[in-house]
Design goal:
By secondary structure, this protein is mainly α. The chain contains eleven helices and two strands; from the N terminus they run H-H-E-E-H-H-H-H-H-H-H-H-H. Helices cover 75% and strands 1% of the residues. The chain has a two-stranded antiparallel ribbon. A hairpin with a 4-residue loop joins strand 1 and strand 2. Helix 1 crosses helix 11, helix 5 packs across helix 6 and helix 8 packs antiparallel against helix 11. The two termini are 38 Å apart.
């Protein structure tokens, strides 16, 4: 009887704690939707800002965010997945590997403003790329890589050793085993880490503040060496730097950014669930 009572109390406490985490998040989302919906229109989504950004739309900022996210994926994902494969399958279990993994975990927790200053020093000034899309994408890519490496390595290590043993017994090489047995089964976790990392990159302001973001551009970027507007920085600008900015436009911009990030998270969840249902283990 005492054990049942203790179990009920534990379940109740866990439920309350979960509600304390989930309810505020839901309230924030609902509030942003409520405040931002009046600004939603075709003009708002497809036209550039006008009248000192107090009217018009946010199309250049949306396009800039999409471009930067795509550039981040190109810069980060191939190297991050390759590093995860090496650490999980090839690297020896020694002190050096331990320190490398520890460094990756620490890099994932570094404040984004530090990555922004790093991108300013290396890409903008030292490599003379200027404030450009390529400098911003490389900075966001470096910021995203630790997260993708960690999640990808965990997904690879989660694949049962029996798959490797059977593949080796049939005469497959190490790389053939990784390519045809390990990676397909680890792909749900790898892709989830990729998309969540890109979702974080899409919502960051500090790294692009020093490397790519423009206060206002009358034209769309024409090359990777041009500046671009981006939703996180645009939201910061219209909320703090533009007097008389209508509240609906501020929350409308926040709503679009929120929908982009939530869409990436939803895609990751759906894809992971779909692929896990196809697994044999």
């Amino acid at each position: 009887m005492k054990r049942q009572t203790t179990n009920k109390i534990a379940v109740a406490l866990i439920t309350i704690m979960a509600a304390l985490v989930v309810v505020p998040i839901i309230m924030v989302i609902v509030y942003v939707i409520y405040q931002g919906l009046p600004a939603m229109s075709w003009q708002f989504l497809t036209e550039p800002p006008t009248n000192g950004m107090r009217e018009g739309g946010i199309m250049p900022a949306i396009l800039g965010t999409v471009i930067l996210t795509f550039g981040t994926a190109i810069a980060a994902i191939p190297l991050a997945v390759a590093a995860a494969i090496y650490l999980a399958e090839y690297a020896a279990d020694n002190r050096l590997t331990h320190w490398v993994r520890l460094a990756i975990v620490n890099l994932a927790g570094i404040p984004s403003i530090v990555y922004g200053l790093f991108g300013l020093g290396i890409f903008v000034l030292f490599l003379n790329l200027g404030t450009s899309i390529i400098a911003g994408a490389l900075t966001l890519g470096i910021m995203t890589m630790p997260v993708v490496i960690s999640t990808s390595e965990e997904a690879i290590n989660a694949v049962p050793q029996q798959f490797r043993t059977v593949s080796f017994s049939l005469g497959a090489t190490k790389w053939q085993t990784i390519r045809h047995q390990v990676l397909p089964h680890a792909m749900p976790g790898i892709i989830t880490g990729m998309i969540l990392g890109l979702g974080r990159a899409a919502g960051e302001t500090a790294p692009i503040l020093f490397t790519v973001a423009a206060f206002y551009l009358p034209e769309l970027p024409r090359s990777i060496f041009d500046q671009t507007m981006a939703l996180p920085y645009h939201l910061y600008v219209i909320s703090t730097q533009v007097p008389g900015m209508p509240l609906a436009i501020q929350y409308g911009t926040a709503l679009i950014l929120l929908l982009i990030v939530l869409s990436l998270t939803l895609i990751a969840t759906v894809f992971r669930t779909s692929m896990r249902r196809r697994r044999d283990w």
